[in-house]
Design goal:
single chain; 430 residues; alpha/beta; Rossmann fold; 2 domains; nine-stranded mixed sheet; two-stranded antiparallel sheet; 13 strands; globular
Amino acid sequence: MIQFNESTSPPFHHAIIPCSNVKMNKNPFERTRSLPGFPTQKALGSFGDANCMEQLLVHCANAIESNDSTLAQQILWVLNNIATPDGDSNQRLTCSFLRALIVRAAKTGSCKILTAMAQDSNLYLQTHKFSVVELASFVDLTPWHRFGFTAANAIISEAIEGFSVVHIVDLSSTHCMQIPTLIDLIANRPEGPPFIKLTVAGATADVPPILDLSYEELCSKLMKFARSRNVGLEFRVIPSSWCDGYASLIDQVQQLVGEGEALVVNCHMMLHFIPEETLRTLFLKAIRGLEPTIVVVVDEDADFTSNDLVCRLRSAFNYLWIPYDTVDTFLPQGSKQRQWYEGDIYWKIENVIAQEGLQRVERLEPKSRWVQRMRNAEFRGVTFSEEAVSEVKNMLDEHAAGWGLKKEEDDLVLTWKGHNVVFATAWVPA
């Protein structure tokens, strides 16, 4: 969740200005229609619609990558006039991609004119650090995370029935926000609650959302909550990084799992941070070697893995319209929570567009690819029970009508207006 520094005008909006010898026209296409290789307004359609904006962004990305400063500047001027940061969802989405392209030009040194523009513009980001209460409230705003929490908790509680000790390895982007809801779910089981050993991977980079709390303080709060539910809890943080496929975490967990314990590996929107295929495969094979009771993989259903900038841009544009579209249903324009929410989306966009190498951590993959990868690692899928499906549906009833749920073989998929958003899958050793 990123918040742009306050200023009298939106960050770098209107900073991209036409050359002094070119007259500003009411129709922003007047300045670009004569440029070689640039499509006409007729070819693009209505320049306020998402398809036109996507095509403009693609042409801009190609111009930046080919160091065509003239064409890039002309297209940016058009985008700057039709994609306002306080407009409709398509305009706000496009404005974020516009910002990200400028940041890329500045980082790569391509298009010297644009690099200078970026240096003169207000592109600095101020990271919001959440308190526990703020983050819990923020996560509850939409089903984006709650869907995974609800589906995972339901199937985990079924898998650990009869175990007196449960070891949970929690790889989550939300700083253990799922754990209190799981504790609540198992606190009143007939045979009494199990003792929970919770192991988390220590954060190695500032990826939103950022919690304004040390692990020691987080541990204290979780243990206090567990005691209030008469659940014993042991909390352990293991410094580990997705850059090496959480190798140190796996090594430590191998030594920590006790005989007769249920081992739960809960992966909530973090496995896609592992940077490349070999490491992802090694991680899953290492998890398989631990003989876990259950593994849950929840992630966003998109593909941001292409090495080609334009392919990534298209994929991100055709997925990240969803959070911009949903925010209009539950947060008023100008609210701080909306700034944090849209700042989180912008962070993703900038990471996908402007970053490369290990700095580009948003490497989402579609569900089909993760399913095949899990099967290759000798796991088999577990079907979510009707009770689990019912719990997810009840949760969705608390949110806007556009959210939906569908079952795909063993898996559950959260949808917005029929489009896949987040998937939840559960696995056991084959």
